[in-house]
Amino acid sequence: MKDINDIKHLYIHVPFCSKKCDYCAFYSIPTDSESLINLFLKHLEIEIIRKKHLCGNLQSIYFGGGTPTLLTAEKLEKLFLLISENFVIDPKAEISVESNPASLTEKKIKLISSFSNRISLGIQSFNPALRTTLGRNGDPDCIDNIIESLSRNNLTNISADLIYGIPGQTLSDFQKDLTRVLQLPLSHISLYSLTFEEGTEINKKLNCDKKEFEVLAAEMWHTAGNFLNCKGMKRYEVSNYAKCGYECKHNLNTWLGGNYLGLGPTASSYYNEIRFTNPVLYPWLKGKAPEEDIISAYERLIEIFIMGLRTTHPWSVNIKVPGPALMTSDYMNKKLSLDEKKWQKLLNKLNYLKKNNLLYIIRKNNCFLIYSTEKGRLFWDSLALEIMETV
Amino acid sequence: MKKRVDKNNIRNFSIIAHIDHGKSTLADRILQATFSVNERDFHDQILDDMDLEQERGITIKSHPVRMNYVKENGGEYELNLIDTPGHVDFSYEVSRSLAACEGALLLIDAAQGVQAQTVANAKLAMQQNLVIIPVINKIDLPAANIEMCYEQLEEILAIPKEEVLLVSAKDGTGVTAVLQAIVELIPPPEKPYGVKGTSALIFDSNYNAYRGVVNYIKVVSGYLRKGHKIRLFSNDIESEIKEVGYFKLGMNASEKLNEGSVGYIIANIKSPGDTKIGDTLTRIDDISSKPLPGFKEIKPMVFSGIYPVDTADYEQLKANMAKLQLNDAAFDYQAESSVALGFGFRCGFLGLLHMEIVQERLRREYNMDIISTYPSVIYYVYLKDGKLEKIDNPINLPDVTKIDRIEEPVIKADILSPNDYIGEVMNLVMTKRGECTSTESVDGNHVMIEAVIPLHEILIDFHDKLKSVTRGYGSLDYESFGYQKADLVKMDILINGESVDAFSSIVHRDMAESRGRQIAERLKEVIPQQMFQVPIQAAVGGKVIARETIKQLRKNVLAKCYGGDVTRKRKLLEKQKAGKKKMKQIGKLNVPQEAFVEVLKTSK
Ligand SMILES: Nc1nc2c(ncn2[C@@H]2O[C@H](COP(=O)(O)OP(=O)(O)OP(=O)(O)O)[C@@H](O)[C@H]2O)c(=O)[nH]1
Ligand code: SF4
Ligand SMILES: [Mg+2]
Fold it and tell me: Does ligand 2 lie within 6 Å of residue A263's CB atom?
């Protein structure tokens, strides 16, 4: 197969943090070792040179981690240079940087503002006791200074991350966090329900039945939906809220089946209908190839379809009888095609899910618009499992 | 070629004992003392060659093995040893093995002394006129009480102290003396009076995926070799022997099986169903006029339904059950169907452990995904019109208005317990609706309590409870003892408002409520939460007697799902999907296989 050479979305994984948070299951190494970071940058350059031909005019770039802002200003500059020198970046491209507020300095903010136009602040919670439960370092009260500095530097597209459903957290604690975070001039918020992932510190710390937290967490999800909606922030994905027009383009692209290139340890890419996952740091440094997830076209279609249902964006399916059904979303410039029989089978399942209030299906002539209900998003795992069964 | 061992130098013997008294460990030592096992290949309880046996540390099947033994002052012997299981549920294995032997080593754990199955198995051997060599094992244990064992053997089995050997199977002490006793005390096999021609007793069999049916036999008269045409007495089916051999650790082909020897034959018998354990086979060119005495038909005592999870697997399950039955003569099955589960089989077992083992073997050896229903015994239901119906499946219980009375099977239990716990044991018998009929002291410190108890009560947890009230010292043997009238009712389990016939059971009226509550609690734990609330109810005659509710799932969504999580999430969902395939759909919800097992357990 010929390599695609117009991937428009780029992800960079910086796998370092100052300290591992107790709830974190991401791939990151707690270190600030200069030499390791240098090594990382050196190999990132190698990977860039090897893969940059895959990309066209970039529409979005996302620096995630780990904590990209853990890098010193000097290293950060080097990282940005690597990107700007090797890729063509559309002037309107969305360029996001994830940050831990504790790691931000005036100098770094200046640098970030000069290169990017979107920043996300990992606040998680303002409540000191809950921060301790999470094992999250840093003082959240530095936020106001940071916001001030960001606006001085004209970086105004700001997102914040909060976590809810924390053991010990009451509904009113959560409302306080929400109120506090909305005092900031944000355009976007990510709210994550705490997950007790296997192997995390918090999972070990709390050996009780985690199911009990789910009841309250569900309530918080509803509360947040209503509360933020009133403030003009719409939930456009299970855990993401934005002012109109400020949805994260980069993430929408991945949810809705677009191609993207991921660089750095454990970063994943999707193109040529294959998902690739890079190895962890050391094998990555040694140049080990990414793992390829090769599945049938129909399985891939279903995977993309269910991912899209995490968002409020509809899928449209055009049918021509006889002939294949064509599935698209407004976010993807390619059509996914599925044969008549498979579409019928899928449609039966979708109708069943509609009956259970998990989906909306609107039919206009030969076109179906399919999107998830609020309940469908809250039970997305169940929904996804049902749809997977048609494979 | 090896010199043929004279028939007078053949010794056939079994090792019998109560469970865990060290039979398989002594077999290990004997195998080593006769150089029958390569030290490199050796591991503990080497004859327990099923994974299940190794995992659970118990013997499930009888295991025959041949050894050559050269006595110190000359004389070469062929020893055919059969290691037997100790658990009551497998006593049929013991009695069949004994039929292939002239002698038995009776083991007694030096710390535990004579236990219920010691007595039961010793009696089996005596009935078959076998020479018994009593052996006190585990004399290395600090808690060993050899004097107590002597006394019990004398009092209970009339075995004088002088005949008893002292052994530690663990460190090998006394094993040489055991070998000597075997050749000196056990007589060589002898052709029974009046038997003419060639005849061999099939005492076990096995289905080998590559070679078909393997029959385990003892050649009682004549001899067998490859190419011989044979005939089975029970069904006149004729076939030709393709291979004869004997057991080492595994099958070992040989030229010939001589009179008196234990070994196997593979003939071109096509269907597993053609072989019957206890049958006699004879040679067409050296025909014997009458069959050997076979085995007493064994009657299953516990019944439960076994169903394929995927209804499409029915035929395959049927074929595999036939194969398994070859290797488990006590297991019985016939077709039945259930509203909740579709087509399956009603199966008969000797006890709950037996039931569990059969299910595990179907899963592991035959790769079947199965679920089983709540176990039941056979009830005699007398109708008002005078008719009698025998019910082994609760769903077939006639309408209450038609029933005059129900009788349930009872057993006579012999419970051996230290004096200190008599009170607790009697109390236990009472709570299980039983009645103590006599007590007899067996030595200064132990009593034998005879009790009549409903079989149904024994099935579930009597044995565990007995062990716990006697600190592990009590033991139990039982046999059926007819039927008794009882106040029994059918209890239904409703999940989400639907009665699930697979969970129905027949219980005593006084126990229905507590039993119902237990089952409901159990099901609540194992059935996953759904997007809706799921009530679980236990009901008798339409009246709900216990209720639990599986709370509604409040949310079920992975919070973070970005680029790299997609593949991971899909793989996770795929796993769940595979898991869901193994669940049984009942109405709107999927019930995992464990649910069907969990309802059996009463206490955690
Ligand atoms: N100390 C000591 N332990 C022994 C001796 N013989 C056997 N054991 C232990 O007793 C336990 C049971 O031994 P097995 O040989 O499996 O007993 P078994 O009679 O074959 O058991 P079943 O086949 O299940 O009836 C094992 O843990 C052995 O290691 C012995 O002479 N001394
Ligand atoms: S900062 Fe983020 S990536 Fe690093 S340990 Fe904490 S949660 Fe994980
Ligand atoms: Mg054993």
Answer: no
